[in-house]
Specification:
Blueprint: H1 17-31, H2 35-54, H3 67-75, H4 77-88, E1 94-96, H5 107-120, H6 127-131, E2 145-147
Antiparallel strand pairs: 1-2
Helix pairs in contact: 1-2, 1-3, 2-3, 2-5
């Protein structure tokens, strides 16, 4: 077996192995993804959330393939709330992109902004999961969302 060096943080490193497995199992069950794909999806959803936590306040959006990983995590509300408190110091809101307040902009721009933020935060980006499917679209929070960063602090 050959060891592969990974240069950067993984989303998986942000949660316990047990929680990662539960989230992966939910994506397999709910989305019908094969387990290897579900592992990649959950890893990238967690890296996305890590980048949201470290972000500059501009909204980011997951891709269509990554979004189910975020949805699976939101369903585990206690774990999600604890994660947000620990990683972001605040709750990372889940906002449907059909809500004009999401303000994520054009899909290609939003995806590039998100991937750039993930890289800037030090996360490994699984390029195929981000650009093979486009930004998630949302209707009543079904497979498409954006984070809702807090407004920047008022300048006095």
């Amino acid at each position: 077996m050959t060891a592969v060096a990974v240069d950067g943080l993984t989303g998986r490193s942000l949660v316990t192995g047990e929680l990662f497995e539960r989230l992966t199992h939910r994506v397999v069950r709910d989305e019908g993804y094969e387990p290897p794909l579900a592992v990649r999806v959950v890893d990238q959803a967690l890296a996305f959330l890590g980048a949201c936590a470290a972000g500059d306040g501009r909204p980011m959006s997951p891709s269509r393939l990554v979004d189910p990983g975020w949805h699976a995590f939101v369903l585990h509300t206690r774990d999600y709330r604890e994660f947000c408190d620990r990683v972001a110091g605040r709750f990372i809101d889940h906002v449907p992109t059909d809500d004009a307040r999401a303000g994520v902009g054009e899909p290609a721009v939003a995806l590039h902004r998100t991937v750039d933020a993930m890289r800037a935060a030090g996360y490994v980006v699984d390029h195929d999961l981000w650009f093979a499917s486009g930004r998630a679209k949302c209707s009543q929070c079904h497979n498409g969302c954006a984070d809702d960063p807090p407004p920047p602090p008022a300048v006095r």
